Amino acid sequence: MASSGIAYPDRFYAAAAYAGFGAGAPSTAAISRFQNDVALLLYGLHQQATVGPCNVPKPRAWSPVEQSKWTSWHGLGSMPSAEAMRLFVKILEEEDPGWYSRIPEFINPQPVVDIEMHKPKEEPDIVPALTNGTGTSSIPEPKTISESGSSVETQDKVVILEGLSTVSAHEEWTALSVSGQRPKPRYEHGATVLQDKMYIFGGNHNGRYLSDLQVLDLKSLTWSKVDAKLQAGTSDSAKTAQVSPCAGHSLISCGNKFFSVAGHTKDPSDSITVKEFDPHTCTWSIVKTYGKPPVSRGGQSVTLVGTTLVVFGGEDAKRCLLNDLHILDLETMTWDDVDAIGTPPAPRSDHVAACHADRYLLIFGGGSHATCFNDLHVLDLQTMEWSRPKQQGPIPSPRAGHAGATVGENWYIVGGGNNKSGVSETLVLNMSTLAWSVVSTVEGRVPLASEGMTLLYSNYSGEDYLISFGGYNGRYSNEVYALKLSVKLDLQSSTKDQPTSDSTSRVLEPEVEISQDGKIREIAMDNADSKNRNDEANEQLLAALKAEKDELEATLNREGLQTVQLKEEITEAEARNAELTKELQAVRGQLAAEQSRCFKLEVELLHRQKAASEQEQAALDAKQKKQAGSGGVWGWLVGTPPDDDDSESS
């Protein structure tokens, strides 16, 4: 990120001393200044930046403070020192935005000198006028840009507001003189142009997310704030609420409305939120989507391709970098998780993306937690295959947080940074030839060399303009700059829409193909034999389609035979199943009969056992009675007198 006043690592050491981590500072200085969780995080980042990854054993359980400090440091893993320094300063700025102004001993301010863009300074105290290359002034009384990021006017300058027409120089950035109350300075906001109006929504200022919606009328160059509400329901009588503050989101115009997609919020949801704004009712509404939505994120790229939005990469709420690809169909509002082939870009955020010829998605730059990228990746949206094409011209330096806008076949890239300084040049990539070139360069610490700015395209009174807003390079900006594109670039970008003259020997047509090695090349055709080549191409295409048709028919026949065989096998299996079912039923009947017979046998056995028992009892009783009768005879033999009954009967 671009520094303010002093660069890294001096800026980190100044922040560390202010926070209480400097040499000789008491161990409780940071804890007394910040909340415990913030102080512990700052401690871990300070140790990571100055010592490196945690290399000390975990303290004993009876020292909870030291344990907490060790856990904060150890949790950073192998984070690079430069990244730890940057995060330390960023967290300090979020907790205490004015810290830098309160440490004069660490600041050596340089004199603020008005610096004109595109032209070197001839004298420190003189601001030369913009020239058109012939020594004459192309703007009689030009506006210049100071190093503080604010616009200043030369003496006796008379400002006449005539919209973007006040920008007369081509391919030179000009700070616009705007009226009305300017929005709060910010970066990581969303911006879009709709009906000659530039809308600015949300963003980040001093670590705080914003939720305001501002609009700049490009005809009068007047700022105004939109009192927008969030529609809580679908009916006209539904209640309204305030929209949640966010940053790192994307604004995409579509028809007479625009969408806000994704973004970081204070209380992030599980998945991406899509909001729609209607300028006629000044109302936000949450869009109901279908399918599996992507995980919530910020710093992603969202590209309009036909009636779909292509979302790539970003950083989720847990600071995990992403390189996944998702497509939202705006007609059905259905998400599609795309699994492309080839080698995708490394996980990243704060990159830019563009669509060429409604077929190719280009991804450039971005950053991870440790480095910035300058690679260019291309996704063929028809075959869903990634490739790394060969670039031509001066290859841009690594950067993140830059902004991009397309005009015809040209893709303009502005701003960004590499954790050390802001990028000063404005680049353009011809998406057909993949050739880079430099459009302009700014000097000094101006908002155009910032991260988190926005870049938009607008056609005003027949002229093409690029418009930038906001950004952060150590200072938050709310300046608006405009660059008028040259007629040469305009004609080059619109060649495909212009009729060719008889005197033109060769033209470039917007036909692009991808070769097997993954490179994109533009096909240059001669007008004289273009018709014959088209006929040959059509014949080849017809032959290829016929061959493909024959192959499909053969495949269909094979599939039909396999289907018949499977049906026969299914019929045989069903017949066998019926036979087995019958056999099973017969076995079950036999088993039931056997069970019934066994039951009868058991009953009969019980009856027999009972009869035998009764017979045995009867025999036993008879025997006992017999024994009782024989006892009377023995009594007579021994002279026992008979009973009285016996004597009476005798």
Automatic annotation (TrEMBL):
Keyword Coiled coil assigned: yes
Keywords: Coiled coil, Kelch repeat, Lipid-binding, Repeat
Coiled coil: 520-597
Residue span of region Disordered: 125-151, 610-650
Ranges of residues in domain ACB: 8-101
Source superkingdom: Eukaryota
Pfam families linked to this entry: ACBP, ACBP4_C, Kelch_KLHDC2_KLHL20_DRC7
Presence of keyword Repeat: yes
Annotated GO MF terms: fatty-acyl-CoA binding
Polar residues bias: start-end ranges: 131-151
Family listed: Belongs to the ACBP family.
PANTHER family found in the cross-reference section: ACYL-COA-BINDING DOMAIN-CONTAINING PROTEIN 4, ACYL-COA-BINDING DOMAIN-CONTAINING PROTEIN 5
Protein name: ACB domain-containing protein
Organism: Triticum aestivum
